[in-house]
């Protein structure tokens, strides 16, 4: 009788051992599958990140070029303004010299008709 109980217990242990081996194999397979999926996911995220960084770098380059162009335009406009201010000053001096000072608009034909007389 003990022998039969021992054989039953051995049979149960063998069955349990087999089931544990199968469970171990399933878990190893799941682990490998998850590791593969993780690696693929990381690769995908890395590629997307690199593409986004490239896009941002290109946009940064465009913005820097735009800023450079705008700076040149601003400097050009400053130079034009300075030239216009110098011309205005010279024109005011000329009007003063010709005796045409005032707020009234000056027509070119009135400037030619006035005789040049020093003050």
TrEMBL record:
Coiled coil: 10-37
Pfam families: CCDC73
Alphabetized UniProt keyword annotations: Coiled coil
UniProt cross-references to InterPro entries, sorted A to Z: CCDC73
PANTHER family membership: COILED-COIL DOMAIN-CONTAINING PROTEIN 73
The protein's name in its UniProt record: Uncharacterized protein
Lineage of source species: Eukaryota, Metazoa, Chordata, Craniata, Vertebrata
